[in-house]
Amino acid sequence: QEMCPRLVNMLLHVLVKLVGSKGLELKVENPEEYNFRPKEMLRDLCAIFALFSTAPEFQIDCAKSGYYSAELVEKSVKTCRKLNLLTGKSMENFATLPALVSAAAQSVASDDVLLTDAPDEFLDPLMCTFMKDPVLLPTSGTIIDRSTITQHLLNDPTDPFNRKDLTVDMVIPATELKEKMNKWVEEKRSAANS
User: Fold this and answer.
1) I need a surface site. Which of 24, 26, 31, 57 has the fewest CB within 10 A?
2) Is residue 27 within 8 Å of 75, Cβ to Cβ?
3) Which residue has better confidence, 36 or 71?
């Protein structure tokens, strides 16, 4: 869950460098000396996109990424077809990615509207975003989203609220709050659909 947004951003960042507007400016003297093979790199990158393209979480993270643009991916699809970099099911999956991400973007937008007036207790105290997986930090008693604290602990093994030692194994799922949040979201969805 924490890795998917990072993976998406990394993949899209490299795709921008290879296929984006400045891709043609990407030149390396003596490419063989550096094992720089952009065509193979693009093939491998697009194969990774094709592999994950059907995963809803991947589609949503693409939609949320600042690096994503439908034009970029469509240009990559055309390039793959022109250079015959992907074939068969892999090419089909990659070609469907822009439409899948577009649908995911609509879902993200409607969820954002749905969650705009969420109670403060449902918001991550550091990121001010709606928590997906609230956990209790036993060292400070603070409830925070698991992805936020996991990201923090990658860089600093302490509770951000009191600087006491903390590991990801120590966090406790806030199941009561999660149930309350789920109930609130369902009520909002029911009200929006009626």
Assistant:
1) 24
2) no
3) 71
Contact 45, 15 (CB under 8 A): yes
Helix (H, G, I), strand (E, B) or coil at 194: coil
Q: For residue 10, give Cα distances in angstroms to 6, 15, 99, 142.
A: 6, 9, 21, 31
Confidence check: pLDDT of 2 > 90:
no
SS3 of residue 165 by DSSP: strand
N residues, the chain: 194
Q: What is the mean pLDDT of residues 118-144?
A: 95
Query: Which backbone phi and psi does 142 adopt, to 5 degrees?
Result: -90, 140
pLDDT tens for each residue of 152-163 = 999 999 999 999
C-alpha dist (Å) from residue 133 to 1, 14, 76, 122, 142: 10, 30, 34, 10, 14
Instruction: Over range 130-159, report the average pLDDT.
Output: 95
* Element holding 172 (H helix, E strand): strand 172-173
Q: How far is CA 40 from CA 5, 19, 21, 29, 72, in A?
A: 24, 13, 19, 17, 18
pLDDT at position 77? 96
Sheet containing strand 134-137, edge to edge, reads 142-145, 134-137, 172-173
For residue 152, count other CB atoms closer than 10 A to its CB. Answer: 17
Q: Is residue 31's pLDDT more than 90?
A: no
